[in-house]
Amino acid sequence: MKHSTAKLQKWKYPVLYLTFFIISMLPLYTQKPYAAQDTQNVIIGLLMKATAPYQAFAPVFHVATIVLIAFIAWKPKWAGRMLSGYMALNYFIIAMVTGLGTTEQYGFVIHTGGLIMYASIGFIWVLTTIRKELQVSFSSASWKHLWLLPLALLAFWAPYETKDNIVYPNFDPVLLLSSPDYGLTFCLTTPVFMFLLILFHPHVGRLAYRITAFNGLLYGVYNLTLWFKPEFRWMGFLHVPLLMISGYALMLAVIEEKRSGRRSKPTV
Q: Where are the domains of the chain?
């Protein structure tokens, strides 16, 4: 029985990763038909339109994150549930904002894989909140990972603007509190969350941590294709934090799992 349980545990994450990979490949729903090779263009068109109606709420997510970080420093005992609950809520919001919308070229669009993935991550973080699996404290944080901070700040800032469907750098400091991409899109919100989780690893809720990191890495890899589109190359650069931080987070999880396995082996 113990052997069967151990075998199930061994295959749990590979099966979950495969499941989310399949979800990411689900076809989009569009009011007007599109060619399969244009899938990313449809998603880009959706994302460029989806956040526009909610730009006024952008400062809420920036300020909320800063307040949460301050609360972690002030009341770490209670901050874990607040942070995990906030992440759950934020991913549900991202699902509703960027999972569906209306574009000029394709009409009403549902990003099927994204919608399911964002909502699933939100649900997993709800479970983490209920189970009190996230423990945070700056006094015991792993500060050796602080080199990731510039990448997290870049995602938090999201310094860009769009003109005539071309993405340009825009280093206006006001965007540090007003960029609509942080808090409303998965790709520029997740690096900040994962950076905080890396600092508090391994007391972070393993399932939620690994599933969030895996999907971050997956979408970071997908968005490497932006580098091959001159008009979106800067946006490709802004996805580097998602790719690097998520990949690093998964690496830490694998290292911790191997260490735990060695500790659990009986000594002769």
A: 9-256
